[in-house]
Specification:
This protein is mainly alpha-helical. The protein is 71% helix and 1% strand. The protein contains 23 helices and 2 strands. The protein has helices at residues 20-31, 35-53, 59-72, 74-92, 94-104, 110-127, 129-146, 151-162, 172-178, 186-191, 204-224, 239-242, 257-263, 266-286, 292-307, 310-321, 325-343, 346-355, 363-377, 381-399, 403-417, 425-432, 436-460; strands at 7-8, 234-235. A two-stranded antiparallel ribbon has the order 1-2. It is globular. Mean pLDDT is 81; it is low at 1-17 and 237-244. This is Serine--pyruvate aminotransferase. Keywords: Aminotransferase, Membrane, Pyruvate, Transferase, Transmembrane, Transmembrane helix.
Length: 461
C-alpha cells in the first residue's frame, strides 16, 4: 500500500498565541527563513569570522576551503539521501504499514501520542541514528492520521526524542574511540589505548541524561500541545497523488517478459544473497559493527525483502526521491561551511580559546560548551570531532582530566545543538511532509532543557 502523502496547512496563525512556547513557534515561523536561505546566511557569518579571527584568514584560503568542502561532502550527502530513501522504502511496505497502524491504533489523545513516540523513537535512535530518523517521522505521520494533534508539535516530539542518538550505539565519537586503528581514534593515537563503550555510552554520565531527556521532554511536550483552537492538523493526499498507481497493485497478471521480470523475486534474491553474504563474512571476521554504509545496506536489504518484487521497491524509492530536494541543496552549502571552518583554522581557534581557561574538573564542561557553538556550523559529528578532538584531548592529557568525559562532552553537545540546527531536521520534515519553521519552534524548548541536563551530568556524574 502506498503511504498517503501528508500536506500541511502552511498558512500562519492569525495572531500570536499566548505563552512562551507559542511565542517561540510564532517567532520561528516569522523569523526563520527556509533552511537553504539560512545556510547561506551562516556561510556569510563564517566567512566574516574567518576573516576576523582565523589564523589562515586570506581570502584565497577561504575560497579554496569553501570550494573543497562543498564538493568533499557530496559522498556524505548521497549517503544521507540513501538512508532517507531506503528507510522510506521499508515503511512503504504493506507489512510495515500494518505494523505502524497497529502501534498507532491505541493512541486517542495528544498525551498518549507523546508518551508513545518518545520512548519508541528514543530507543530506535539509540540503536541507530538513521533508523531513529525514519521511524520518528513515519510514526508521527501515522499517529497524525488517527488523532487530532498539532502535526508540527508531533514531528518536533519525534525529532526531540531522536536527539539522543549521539549517546547511542551509532555515536561516531564513541565508536571511533573504541575502535583499534580507527582514523578518528585520537585517544589511541595519543595514549596507545582505546576507550571502551563501557566508559562512554554505557557509563552513567552518558545514559542517565539521555534517559532523562526522553522522559522529561515527553512530559513537557504533553504540556506544550496547543489548545484545540490553535491546532494545525494534517490533511490527506493531494489530488495529484491520486493518479499515481500503487506499486503493489502492479502485480496484475501479464504475459509480457518485462512484466514477469518486474514481478519476479529473482532480482531481489540476487541482491539479498550478495548483501547478506557480505555482512555475514565481514561481521564474522571483524565483529558486529554499524557505520553509515552498513546501515544503508541493511535498510536496502530489509526494504527489498519486505517489498518482495523489484518493481515495488523501485516505485517506493521513486516516491522517496521526491523528498530529497532540500537535502541536495543544503548539504553542499554546509560542506562549504565545514571546509572554511577547518581550512582556515577557525574551528580550532574557537576550541582553543575555551580550553585555555579550563581546569581538570571543568574541561569536560568547556569541551561541551565549545562543541555547542561548533556544532551549529559543523553539524556532522565525525567532521566536528576531527576538528575539535585534536585540541580538547591533548588538553585533557596535560590537565589529567577525564578522557571519556571530555570526548563525550563533544558528542552530548551534538545532541543539544541539533535541536536548533536544521541540518538533521531536513530528512525528518521531508519524510513527514511539513515545513520546518514550526517544528524548530518546539525543539528550541528541547534545546534549553537538554542543555541543562547534559551539562549537569558532565559536572556531577
Amino acid at each position: 500500500m502506498k503511504p498517503t502523502t501528508v500536506k500541511i496547512d502552511s498558512a500562519p496563525s492569525v495572531a500570536p498565541q499566548r505563552g512562551i512556547v507559542a511565542a517561540l513557534v510564532y517567532a520561528f515561523e516569522r523569523l526563520m527563513p527556509d533552511p537553504f536561505v539560512l545556510s547561506l546566511g551562516l556561510t556569510l557569518v563564517v566567512v566574516l569570522l574567518a576573516l576576523g579571527i582565523a589564523p589562515k584568514h586570506s581570502f584565497e584560503t577561504i575560497l579554496d576551503s569553501w570550494y573543497g568542502g562543498t564538493f568533499k561532502i557530496l559522498a556524505f550527502a548521497l549517503q544521507m539521501i540513501l538512508i532517507l530513501a531506503t528507510g522510506y522504502a521499508i515503511a512503504d511496505a504493506p507489512i510495515v504499514q500494518r505494523m505502524l497502524r497497529a502501534v498507532a491504533s491505541g493512541v486517542r489523545t495528544p498525551a498518549r501520542a507523546a508518551m508513545l513516540i518518545f520512548p519508541v523513537v528514543g530507543f530506535a535512535a539509540w540503536l541507530n541514528w538513521g533508523l531513529g530518523l525514519v521511524v520518528g517521522a513515519l510514526l508521527a505521520r501515522e499517529i497524525a492520521r488517527r488523532v487530532k494533534v498539532d502535526f508540527a508539535w508531533l514531528v518536533a516530539g519525534s525529532y526531540s526524542a531522536w536527539s539522543i542518538c549521539n549517546s547511542g550505539l551509532s555515536s561516531s565519537i564513541a565508536l571511533s574511540q573504541a575502535s583499534h586503528g580507527n582514523a578518528l581514534n585520537l585517544v589511541e593515537k595519543a595514549t596507545g589505548q582505546v576507550i571502551g563503550l563501557t566508559q562512554t555510552i554505557f557509563a552513567p554520565f552518558v545514559y542517565v541524561p539521555s534517559v532523562l531527556v526522553v522522559v522529561v521532554m515527553a512530559f513537557i511536550f504533553v504540556r506544550m500541545h496547543p489548545k484545540p483552537e490553535d491546532v494545525v492538523a494534517f490533511s490527506h493526499a493531494a489530488p495529484e497523488d491520486a493518479a499515481e498507481p500503487d506499486s503493489h497493485a502492479r502485480n496484475a497478471p501479464s504475459a509480457s517478459f518485462a512484466a514477469r521480470a518486474e514481478r519476479s523475486v529473482l532480482g531481489t534474491l540476487v541482491l539479498l544473497a550478495l548483501g547478506c553474504g557480505y555482512l555475514a563474512t565481514t561481521w564474522y571476521k571483524k565483529g558486529f559493527e554499524l557505520d553509515i554504509d552498513t546501515t544503508i545496506l541493511l535498510f536496502l536489504l530489509i526494504g527489498l525483502a519486505l517489498q518482495r518484487s523489484p518493481i515495488a521497491y523501485a516505485d517506493a524509492i521513486r516516491r522517496a526521491a521526491r523528498q530529497t530536494g532540500s537535502m541536495l541543496l543544503q548539504y553542499p552549502i554546509y560542506g562549504g561551511i565545514m571546509g572554511i571552518m577547518i581550512g582556515t583554522g577557525l574551528a580550532s581557534t574557537i576550541a582553543e580559546r575555551f580550553v585555555t581557561i579550563a581546569t581538570p574538573a571543568s574541561l569536560p564542561l568547556w569541551s561541551y560548551l565549545s562543541s555547542l557553538i561548533i556544532t551549529l556550523l559543523i553539524p556532522s559529528a565525525g567532521g566536528h570531532w576531527a576538528v575539535q578532538g585534536p585540541f580538547v584531548l591533548p588538553a585533557a592529557l596535560s590537565l589529567h582530566a577525564s578522557l571519556p568525559h571530555t570526548a563525550m562532552g563533544v558528542a552530548m553537545a551534538e545532541n543539544v545543538s541539533n535541536m536548533l540546527q536544521p541540518f538533521w531536521a531536513v530528512p525528518v520534515v521531508a519524510i513527514a511532509g511539513i515545513k520546518i519553521q514550526r517544528v524548530m519552534g518546539y525543539t528550541a524548548v528541547t534545546f534549553a532543557v537538554s542543555l541543562v541536563i547534559y551539562a549537569l551530568a558532565l559536572w556531577l556524574l
